[in-house]
Amino acid sequence: MKTVSVNTPSKTYPVEIGQGLLEQAGHKICQLHCKNVMVVTDSHVAPLYGQKVLDCLKAAGLEVSQFVFPAGEGSKCAETLLALLNEMAACHFTRSDAVVALGGGVVGDLAGLAASLYMRGMKLVQLPTTLLSAVDSSVGGKTAIDLPAGKNLVGTFYQPDLVLCDIDTLTSLPAAEIANGQAEVIKYAFLKDASILELLHERASLEDMIARCVAIKRDVVCADERESGLRQLLNFGHTFAHSIEQNSGYTIPHGSAVAVGMVLITRAAVKKGLCDASCLKTLLQVLDECHLPVSTEYSPDALFATVLSDKKRAADSITLVVPRKIGLCELQKVSLEDARTFLQLGMTGESV
Length: 352
Prior knowledge:
Layout: E1 2-7, E2 12-18, H1 25-30, E3 36-42, H2 46-59, E4 63-69, H3 78-90, E5 98-103, H4 105-117, E6 123-128, H5 131-137, E7 142-147, E8 150-157, E9 162-166, H6 175-191, H7 206-223, H8 238-247, H9 254-271, H10 277-289, H11 300-307, E10 313-314, E11 317-325, E12 328-335, H12 336-346
Parallel strand pairs: 2-9, 3-4, 3-5, 5-6, 6-9
Antiparallel strand pairs: 1-2, 7-8, 10-11, 11-12
């Protein structure tokens, strides 16, 4: 097992990565000194791991409730959030109790937001069951729901008290969901550590790969917890990716959208002379090996219309994450018109 300690200005907590951690969840959550827990999960994860987690928590002496919602991005909305909050109130939860998020990114975002809001904050435990949530969304404290106008527009920064990443849960994932998470792994390789690419397809290196991605995110989040500057680097590929997701009605998975978003910004950077063409070549190759898309059917105009709702926009400018080489990206604050140019350059041709 590997443990990454996260020490943010607001909270310190461990991220434990290894096998068999779901069976240990009850004992570890008891150490948070809570009596009641609300397990939040979705209709895909509940049949796989719901009962195992409930039994484990009850065996540890905890009082357990469960909230299951329909799987999918469509449930990351105000209606589901309010239903969860009302259920917590009906069960007489207090701020000394805990929310346990069992699932992928949607579960973690929704449960985390509920934990941050209920009685102005209660304990939060993340039990990620997807590669994407293991390497990225379960760590760092971002919580959110979507609005019709855009993705993740209502949310808080709220760190968990504990993250248990049981890599045994990843064996149940279909190939498409593994690829979805690999997109975020590739993101971390291009941001800080090119050698992570060597671990993408090695099952024996899964623990190490996840830990290295988490450590990169830890370092960035601890330096900029509330995304006022450096943390925006973690959005490599995401500005255009969120537009792709929204235009698809969230039928395109987040990882697939991020893959295309990384290609668009990298191709534009090559054309602008900011990045060597070999960077784009490597990116296209590794995405192809992971069976991830590298292009989109949506027009630049359609994508740019939703870029205007991006959280990183400030008045008439927006911050883009631009690659300079594999392992190094930088933030560039550009005008909205320049952002449109980046998008147009990224959607035409292979390189220059």
